[in-house]
Specification:
By secondary structure, the protein is an all-alpha fold. It folds into two domains: about 1-75, Helix Hairpins (Orthogonal Bundle); about 80-265, Cytochrome c oxidase, subunit III, four-helix bundle (Four Helix Bundle (Hemerythrin (Met), subunit A)). It is about 75% helix and about 0% strand.
Length: about 260
């Protein structure tokens, strides 16, 4: 039975998809650990693939459910109460702040290890080539420009330009990930692996988690692009677009720090 709400705060209906998304993320983590430490490795691989399937399926269903709920409440048509709009914005700000703390821990670990090792990188590891990271930096900085142009176009109701710039942004994200995969393959052949001591561990942890965030940001922008094609968002009401753009700019800034401190200095 529907319950009348005498306030402007939005309380989502009960859904199975959020806990399933958490379950999938947990299976991903356990699968990754099992793949590294358990024998046979196929057990970890199976858990990893199962976790990926559950996470993607549940997250997409969750996004679709929330999108339908938002449209049913008039979101995208200029009918968002102020308290809900502020709640969304503060929520996204605090989420990004938590991500800043997440990466700050990795940077702190990197600086600590570097300060306490007189030879960095260690003698058994050659310096990481910088030509591919330079290209990756240009790609991510370019994507920051395209998402800004997309937002500017949406504010001026130029939807075709918004669609094009959004499409280019997530395409650049996919290209970035493809180059990162190629770089990882090359480094593994050169002997830089997770088992290459603390350098290999911290390098793959911090760059790998950044790559995962690029993947999440690309998926968010794909969803934005799909919703734009469906006619969602207006120049006055497009917070999900803004949230995805904020997240993407955060990913760009983190990469600049990684590029400077891990690859260049």
């Amino acid at each position: 039975m529907a319950h009348h709400q005498d306030h402007n705060f939005y309380i989502p209906a009960a859904s199975i998809w959020p806990p399933l998304s958490c379950l999938g993320a947990g299976l991903l983590a356990f699968g990754f650990i099992a793949k590294l430490h358990m024998s046979p490795a196929i057990i970890g691989t199976g858990l990893l693939l199962l976790g990926l399937l559950v996470t993607l399926t549940a997250a997409l269903q969750w996004f679709w459910e929330m999108t339908r709920s938002a449209k049913a409440r008039g979101f995208g048509k200029g009918m968002v109460p102020l308290v809900q709009d502020l709640g969304q914005r503060y929520g996204m700000v605090f989420f990004i702040a938590s991500e800043v703390m997440f990466f700050s821990a990795f940077f702190a670990a990197y600086f600590f290890l570097r300060a306490h090792n007189p030879e960095w990188p260690p003698a058994n590891i050659q310096a990481i080539p910088v030509h591919l990271p330079v290209l990756m930096t240009m790609i991510l900085l370019g994507s920051g420009v395209t998402i800004t142009l997309a937002h500017h176009a949406l504010l001026h109701n130029r939807r075709e330009e918004t669609l094009l710039m959004t499409f280019l942004t997530w395409q650049l994200g996919v290209i970035f990930l493809a180059i990162m995969a190629y770089e990882y393959t090359h480094l593994y052949h050169e002997g830089v692996t997770l088992s290459s001591g603390v350098f290999g561990s911290i390098f793959y942890m911090v760059t790998g988690f950044h790559g995962f965030h690029v993947l999440i940001g690309s998926l968010m922008l794909m969803w934005v692009h799909w919703r734009l094609q469906r006619g969602d968002f207006t120049r006055h009401n497009h917070f999900y677009f803004e949230a995805a753009a904020w997240y993407w700019h955060f990913v760009d800034v983190v990469w600049i720090g990684l590029f400077l401190f891990i690859y260049v200095l």
